[in-house]
Design goal:
Elements (H helix, E strand, L loop, with lengths): L1 E3 L2 E3 L2 E7 L2 E8 L2 E5 L1 E4 L11 H7 L4 E4 H6 L3 H6 L3 H5 L5 E4 L2 H5 L6 E3 L2 E5 L6 E4 L1 H11 L3 E3 L11 H24 L3 E2 L2 E2 L1 E6 L5 H14 L3 E4 L8 H14 L5 E5 L4 H9 L4 E4 L1 H7 L2 E4 L2 E4 L19 H5 L2 H9 L3 H28 L2 H7 L4
Parallel strand pairs: 6-18, 7-8, 8-12, 12-15, 15-16, 16-17, 17-18
Antiparallel strand pairs: 1-2, 3-4, 4-5, 9-10, 10-11, 13-14, 19-20
Helix pairs in contact: 6-7, 7-8, 8-9, 10-14, 11-14, 13-14, 14-15
Amino acid sequence: MRRLDGIPDFPFRLVAQDGRARAGVLDTPRGPVYTPCFMPVGTKGTVKAMTPDRLRSVGAQVILANTYHLALRPGSDVVRTLGGLHRFMGWDGPILTDSGGYQVFSLRDTVRLDDNGAEFLSIYDGARQVFTPERAMAEQAYLGADLVMCLDQCPGAGATEDQLAEAVDRTGVWAERCKRAHQSRGGLGTDGHQMLLAIAQGGVIPRLRHVSVAKLLEIGFPGYALGGLSVGEDRRAMLDTVELTAEMLPSDRLRYFMGIGDPEGLVEVIARGIDLFDCVLPTRTARMGTAFTRTGKLNLRNADHTLSAQPIEPGCQCTACANFSRGSIRHLVMQKEILGLALLTEHNLVHVMRLVTAAREAILAGGFAAFRREHDHA
């Protein structure tokens, strides 16, 4: 394991590049991660409606958990006492925990913010909480994930340029403090070494993205995330910002887009040089009765599917498509049966994993442009 200024650095190497699209390998202590890679979200210590075995079967490599929620319920100290997040979740592969910044700042109507940190009231019991960079690092060390995130300030899409500039400045200051706190523990968490990633802010304003990335590069991190996107901004402006920011980042460092999971969006951010991504969309959409397919979304709540004997998607080998009809799954969805939610969740994750794997194969074969054209309707 290499170290970057005292920060554990899981080696990342590019295997192929086709245009801006990249295929690489991140070597973690829990096994290699082949990029591009989509990470299912297990907010409270579980990917809803999925067992660890089913996650492995659909091709999940890394799963994500939420520091904010787990720090409050059941508490990071409880997770540590029970053996760390891997044992807690029954998952022996890599885990990434976010810093809690996005959740804290989603409470912006009640949060008090200053350079020290963010003060807010717990959504669970109303107790006063203060998240500082040092606490974000301590909570993630207790949880014991493999990849951990700096605390950042995440403004919404309606933020003014002055507010975005303030978030950029504060995010840089907090990144320095996160790095120092992480180094003070030797980069160790409950379950071993942790790789610390920084988060760039700046909205869709190129000048501010340059300022944010320059500051984070000056501090030095093994990988960099694009934050403050997919929060309601114009899609074209978001993609232009992804392309601009990716070009600023070192080619030998991991690049992570926080919060994108629709099939078309995944293809487009891969095309712009992103390696990792996560989102609740595939699983949340499933719980609303909607399936991803090659030709678009399929709403199983629609009465047209009541008597349909077809699978959700012919040729798909997920449990839902191999064993159930659209009509039977619609019945489960309409009756709010847990099985229906589980079947659709598995199907949507299979769809996303298959798409991302195919993108990697296209990059390796030098055919990503054709792949992108084929999926521009996804």
